[in-house]
Amino acid sequence: MSPPRLSLIVPMLDEAAGIAAALAALRPLAAEIVVVDGGSRDASPALAAPHADRVLSAPRGRARQMNAGAAAAGGDVLLFMHADTRLPADADRRVLAAIDRGAVWGRFDVRIDGASRLFPLIGWLMNRRSRLTGIATGDQAIFVRRDAFRAVGGFPEQPLMEDIALSAALKRLGRPACLPGPAVTSGRRWEKHGVLRTVLLMWRLRLRYFFGASPAALARDYGYAPDQP
Q1: How far apart (Å, rounded) are the C-alpha atoms in residues 108 and 91?
Q2: Phi/psi zone of residue 224: left (φ > 0), alpha (ψ -120 to 50 degrees), beta?
Q3: Structural domain includes residue 158
Q4: What's the distance, CA 229 to chain centroid?
Q5: Is the distance from CB of 24 to CB of 97 less than 8 angstroms?
Q6: Phi, psi (deg, nearest 5) at residue 7
Q7: In sequence order, what are the beta bridge partners of 180?
């Protein structure tokens, strides 16, 4: 059996409520599915196993989990996606077509799923900003050629803004392919903490990161404290 061209890498932590359905939706794609658990305290690994090609364990932290998944994956194109994101039905074809046209890396436009009337505007702003800056976020399902991912050293193993840092490194190899998609991501964090509050917090954190703030300090302010290496 020939190795897959495309590997989907899904970091996971305490996703028992939705991981089986999320992975089942990926099975029709011509892609390897690699799930990397960061120490779930629920049944996430057992629920993921029937729907994934591989379920791995890694120290908690999205960057470390995704790097572990990339190291274990068999595809020559890697796509990193959140556990609560849904890809377009033809995502595999579109990603590989973009790579075959010469793209080194890319991402999908995003749509945020939820009840807030602000979500369409937030998604539009995220996509517009990404097209202007060439920076992608994890919600947009970043894909990259394996050789390019290795060339930039993978995700920097920092607790926050790892997607921004990877995008900045990949930009030196080429502009991203911006696929219309959309990838649909859950608005649960926005809804849990307040939509406007979360948007303003992320803007503030990104501005501080731009001016050199420590990712560890930003992660604490974001309310995220991964295990220490």
Answers
A1: 9
A2: beta
A3: yes
A4: 21
A5: no
A6: -120, 130
A7: none
> Would you say residue 97 lies in a domain?
yes
* pLDDT of 229: 41
In tens, the pLDDT along 131-157 reads: 999 999 999 999 999 999 999 999 999
What SS3 state is found at 78? Answer: strand
Determine phi and psi for 88, rounding to 5 degrees. Answer: -60, 155
Rounded distance between C-alpha atoms, residue 79 and residue 7, angstroms: 6
pLDDT tens, 22-66? 999 999 999 999 999 999 999 999 999 999 999 999 999 999 999
The separation between CA 109 and the C-alpha centre of its own chain, rounded to angstroms, equals 12
- What CA–CA distance (Å, rounded) separates 115 from 135? 27
The domain of 177 spans 6-193
Q: What is the pTM of this model?
A: 0.92
CA separation for the pair 135, 164 (Å, rounded): 6
CB-CB contact of 226 with 219 (8 Å) = yes
Whether 124 is in a domain gets the answer: yes
Token pair listed for 85: 């994101």
Q: How many domains does the chain have?
A: 1
Q: How far apart are CA 63 and CA 160, in angstroms?
A: 8
Q: Which pLDDT belongs to residue 35?
A: 98
Tokens read off for 118:
């602000």
Find the CATH number of the domain harbouring 28: 3.90.550.10
Radius of gyration, alpha carbons of the chain? 16
Q: How many CB atoms lie within 10 A of CB 130?
A: 20
Q: Specify if 217 maps to a domain.
A: no
